[in-house]
Each structure stands twice: as structure tokens, then as C-alpha cells.
Write a structure and sequence with these properties.
257 residues, five-stranded mixed beta sheet, 8 helices, extended
Length: 257
């Protein structure tokens, strides 16, 4: 199959003169012209993507200019791949969806507790587990500041901490990003990662891709999306309204704005 590539971006300044008949007007917006900045993404295989940004007329040209400016960063880009995980009691399951390829599923036997211990040790070696409001410290207790702190924030550990974390980095990388899986990424350089369970605490950008410790985040543009399991866990927390009570609470919030 042909890899999908964005070849062109069309932006349309779409306006309807609704102000002539005061359609949609109210006490605040007395003469709105219902409008939209309409964006069309064209690709090499005929697929198209559409986006709308609605306005009341004034400022619509600014939305159009913003889209035209951002278009330069989109042309020539391929679609993003999606890497999703599921952590069970004794198995790590990976789903990889690459544009133009079939969905790929792979499994790795690893106890959930062992995976959690590995993630916790990895974070501690990087100093993430000891993060505080005013400072961050390694397991040795030394304060981190300046360039070292900046490196941690960027997801790439400095040399001293990297030496401590290398064995843990390698073990996690082999579990989460085995070579055969990375080979199937193809030419894509943008990935959406959907972690599950304890993997939501993993700084994927810091995982090494090779013996030279090339950070995953320096080769691929990474984005994150929550899993449906996480959404379910959030909604099932004690004390949160459900059903009709949830709808009533939402309406109250909207009315108060």
C-alpha cells in the first residue's frame, strides 16, 4: 500500500452574512456573521482531512492566517503511527498501527509486579521519583539544578544519572520497544503512544534505541493519548457523580459560567 503523505493544505475563509437578518444575534453579539476557517488536507492517495474553526466573523481572517502559517509544517509529513499497550497480570500486549500497513499485535511475558518494579527503579534512577516542588534529587540525595535539571525536564538524563539508569533503560527498552517492533515503524517519524497502567509513568523519550543510547525522543516526535481503561478508572472514582446526577452537575457548572 502507498504510504499516506500530506501533499497540500487548502484554507478557505468561509463567511455567511447572517447579520443582515440578525440571525443568531443576542445581547452581546448583535451583528454576527457566522463564519469559519475551513482547512482541507490533501494527500497523495486521494484521502482528505477536514477541519473547521468557527467564529462570528470578526477575527476569522486571523484564524485563516494562522492555518496558512501552520500549513508549512504539515506539507510532506506522513501520518502518525499509534503504539498502544495493555498490561495484564502476566503479559504485556502491544498494538502497532502504521498508516498503510495492517495492525500488528505482539506479546511479551512479564509479570505486572515485575514491570511495576522496573518502571519504579527506572524513574528513581532518573530522579523522577524524588521530584519535589523546590528541587529534584537522585537516589544518593544530591540536589539537582542547572543543566542537570534542564536535562531531566527534557527527558534525557545527564551523564552521571545516565550511567545509573543504563541497565534499567535497556531492560525497559527491550520490553517496550524491541527491535522487531521498531523495524515495523517504517518511514514514520511521529508516534502516538497510548500507555496503560504503570506504563503511564514511563518517560518514553528517554528510552535508548541503540548501544549508543540514542534517546527515543530524539528520533521520533512523540505524543501521548489516554487509554479507555484510564478514562474508566477516572470515571469510577468514589465520590464522582454518575448518570443523571453527573448530567445535572455539568449543567450547573455551565450555567454558572
Amino acid at each position: 500500500m502507498i504510504e499516506t503523505v500530506i501533499t497540500n493544505v487548502r484554507v478557505i475563509d468561509l463567511r455567511f452574512p447572517t447579520s443582515r437578518s440578525n440571525i443568531g444575534s443576542d445581547a452581546v453579539n448583535k451583528d454576527p456573521d457566522y463564519s469559519a476557517a475551513y482547512c482541507i488536507l490533501e494527500t497523495n492517495n486521494g484521502l482528505e482531512g477536514y477541519g473547521l474553526t468557527f467564529t462570528l466573523g470578526r477575527g476569522n481572517e486571523l484564524c485563516v492566517l494562522a492555518l496558512e502559517y501552520l500549513a508549512r509544517f504539515v506539507k510532506g509529513r506522513t501520518g502518525a503511527a499509534v503504539l498502544s499497550f495493555l498490561v495484564t497480570a502476566d503479559t504485556l500486549i502491544r498494538w502497532l498501527a502504521v498508516p498503510g500497513n495492517a495492525l500488528q499485535v505482539s506479546r511479551q511475558t512479564v509479570p505486572r509486579d515485575s514491570l511495576g518494579t522496573l518502571v519504579g527503579s527506572f524513574r528513581a534512577a532518573l530522579g523522577v521519583g524524588d521530584a519535589a516542588r523546590s528541587s529534584i534529587a537522585f537516589r544518593g540525595g544530591d540536589a539537582i539544578e542547572g543543566d542537570t535539571l534542564d536535562a531531566l525536564r527534557s527527558g534525557v538524563a545527564p551523564s552521571a544519572s545516565r550511567r545509573k539508569a543504563e541497565p534499567l533503560n535497556d531492560r525497559l527498552a527491550r520490553l517496550l520497544l524491541p527491535p522487531d517492533l521498531r523495524h515495523n515503524f517504517g518511514a514514520t517519524r511521529e508516534l502516538v503512544i497510548v500507555p496503560h497502567g504503570v506504563l503511564g509513568l514511563v518517560p518514553f523519550a528517554a528510552l535508548p534505541l541503540d548501544s549508543g543510547n540514542t534517546p527515543f525522543g530524539s528520533v521520533y516526535a512523540l505524543r501521548y493519548a489516554p487509554s479507555l481503561a484510564v478514562l474508566g478508572q477516572v470515571e469510577s472514582r468514589a465520590g464522582l457523580p454518575t448518570g443523571a446526577a453527573r448530567s445535572a452537575a455539568l449543567m450547573e457548572r455551565l450555567a454558572a459560567r
